[in-house]
Amino acid sequence: MASNSALPHIVILSFLLFLLLAVSQANVELGTHLIAGDGGSPWTSPSSDFAFGFQPLEDKNFFLLCIWFYQIPNKTIVWYANRDNPAPRSSKIELTTDGQLVLTNPIGQQLWKANTSTSVAASAAMLDNGNFVLQNKESQYIWESFSNPTDTILPGQILQVGVNLSSQLTYTNYSRGRFQLRLLQDGSVILNPVSLPAYFAYDPYLTIGVANPPDNRSTLVFSESGRLYIESSNGSIVDLSPINTYPSADFYHRATLDVHGAFYLYSYPRPSRGGIGVWSSDKSFPDDVCNITGDLGGGACGYNSYCGVANGMPICECPPEYTPNDPKNILSGCKPKIPLLCDEGESGSLESLFEFKELIGTNWPFSDYERIEPISEEDCKNSCLQDCYCAVVIYNTAQQCWKKRLPVSNGKLSASDTGKALFKVRRPTSSNATSSSTTKKDQTIAILVGSLGGSVFINFLLLAATCLSAFYAYQKRPKSNTQGSSISETNLRSFTYKELEEATNGFKEELGKGAFGIVYKGLYPLGSKNLVAVKRLDKVVQDGEKEFKTEVSVIGQTHHKNLVRLFGYCDEGSHRLLVYEFMSNGSLASFLFGLSRPHWDQRTQIAIGIARGLAYLHEECSTQIIHCDIKPQNILLDDFFRPRISDFGLAKLLMPDQVLTRTVVRGTRGYVAPEWFRSTPITAKVDVYSFGVMLLEIISCRRSVDTAWGGEEKAILTDWAYDCYREDKLEELVERDEEAMRDEKRLLTFVMAAIWCIQEDPPLRPTIKKVSQMLEGAVDVPCPPCPFPFSSYS
């Protein structure tokens, strides 16, 4: 009886499930196809969250058959079919009339095919969870993208033993890369490098989970709620999720094996919820994304390079006097600009042939072949100098010296590393460089002599014609108004107004507004993919012209990874414009004060980067630069979320003998140092004050002045932050951010450094270089006094 009574409920439930399936997918019928590059619409899921179709590669004549997030601007790709075999323009993906999903090139050759064994598809569908499926007449899945992952898994996806993830080769090359994620038979998840092109698996650099009994099967589950865990057949679970997981109703989620070898869990606010459009890294494996080491393989960044962390992402750099093997791919590793081999019979002393370039806090843990201790640094360098095998030595405060030969691998930059790397490099004026250039000159002369010898008279006529043509072109070149010799010495591009008008499509797309004008998005050269930001100074008065000249002549000479680069300028009649590199991830203000709270590690690395950039402006430029308007809106984020200081339109230059200036009040409410209002001398300490306010914003993810934030007593961030510090309630300042609270020591260091920066008395504030050292942990931070000497605190 119980069984009979349950039957109607089962029928109803089955009917409801059928209806649910009917509305959760849009079927692709037999004979339907898409053409690469024809501008047609892709196959989308019912909610339009995901799309299946073609995306152009870096070479616009080739395409990737893939699945991507359809609703977000950057169209993040989560699966691809032909990763090692790009499809030429006009290639076709078709669900054929005989039930096969096939990708063919324009002449009909097969590039890829979904492996359905002997089964035949009746239809296909792009599902709302990001799974593309082929199904038979009984609506059973005979093939699905979830069972054939590439570098990403999505909520609702399960990885079985034997199904691996493989990283991309680079961010623009989707071929199989240098790293794998694998679920082993014993239930553990491992990350390991592989050899290319054979894909031989090296030993793992990270093992997640614990080994199970041989008969206990496991799966890696990414649940629909966004949680990631290893589930064993005996019911045990190893949770890999971040402590705080954003709800799937409000956020997209994905887990991706990065090109550097780290496995990231990402979240992105759904556009329907007013998201700010940034993928945030919620957790990474390993926690230290540069800790990707092994006896074999080049580590996170390739051979002879080193890895640093910026905003939770690896940043790869070459050592001094080294250059990337492939300028378009930093992951290709690095090589010496001048070969290091010392040949017998070379003239000159070793000291005249070689010198050492120093890198603080870097290490390459492998490639050692000799260890010497105790030894002085000078003797360590001399030992390497006399050794043709030695390319770099690592020296530390314990007077230990490790000699290494090339290639060095698994390089890592760490603020806690007290050692230094000393790279032996060829001097540019060494006999090697001289003989090389001499040889080239001799070859050139020989070619010229030979060619002239063939026909002196004809070559003379050609040479004369060439000179006359060059002279004529020089006379006819466009004349532009110069701003003095200082501008011409910066090697900046002088643009015409027409060029910039075309590059910005008539100044159509506005990026933002500054104190002296509007910034527009542009493409240069026209029709290329090179984005630029064009700052148009429309309301220039006499003082504004002076500011413009300052930017062109001085900013063009500044070069630092935490500064926005100036490409060129236009000074044509009344038109004055500046052309900057384009920053793809917007401003720090949008990043900090959006819907989701950025990861604590991302925020700390941004703060350190800004401090380094300011230290360069204050102390490392030939002419000191005071910014005068440091605030989150003037900090931009590049492709890797590395901070870049922008908007030098308010900068004031100080000659070495003119350290103090008096001028009108500059800056923005909430960030302005008190001395601006006291008619007292202005120094670089005004930037230190503004940085301190902004550092508190980075720590707390709230604005410096916000009357809606917890009432009047918390409206002024600097006051409230000192309250939290004085009462030992830093958890309130970070709103109990668990990542920040687990990093209690660094949190306290950052808050104390910020309080030193906002001291009302300028001499009490440290220099920005000292602040940078505080944030990096290189120097201790003493307990700061009350920053408000005339308040009730004192």
Could you list some keywords that capture this structure?
single chain; 794 residues; alpha+beta; Agglutinin, subunit A; Hepatocyte Growth Factor; 5 domains; 6-stranded mixed sheet; 5-stranded antiparallel sheet; 16 helices; 24% helix; globular; disordered N terminus
Q: Find the count of extended strands (DSSP E, 2+ residues).
A: 46
Helix content: 10-25%
Span between termini: 83 Å
What does the overall shape look like? globular
Unreliable sequence segments: 1-23, 430-463, 466-489, 652-667
CATH architecture classification of the largest domain = Orthogonal Bundle
Gyration radius (Cα, Å) is: 31 Å
> What count of domains describes the coordinates?
5
Secondary-structure content class: alpha+beta
Major sheet attributes = 6 strands, mixed
Task: Average the pLDDT over all residues and give the rounded result.
Answer: 80
**Strand order in the sheet with the most strands:** 37-41-42-40-39-38
CATH topology of the largest domain: Transferase(Phosphotransferase), domain 1
What would CATH call the class of the largest domain?
Answer: Mainly Alpha
Strand portion: 25-35%
**CATH H level, superfamily name of the largest domain:** Transferase(Phosphotransferase) domain 1
| Number of distinct helices | 16
What's a quick, concise take on this entry?
The chain is an alpha+beta fold and 794 residues long. It has five domains: 27-148, Bulb-type lectin domain (Agglutinin, subunit A); 149-284, Bulb-type lectin domain (Agglutinin, subunit A, Orthogonal Prism); 306-432, Hepatocyte Growth Factor (3-Layer(bba) Sandwich), CATH 3.50.4.10; 485-581, Phosphorylase Kinase, domain 1 (2-Layer Sandwich), CATH 3.30.200.20; 588-776, Transferase(Phosphotransferase) domain 1 (Transferase(Phosphotransferase), domain 1), CATH 1.10.510. The strands form twelve sheets. The protein has a six-stranded mixed beta sheet with strand order 37-41-42-40-39-38, sandwiched between helices.
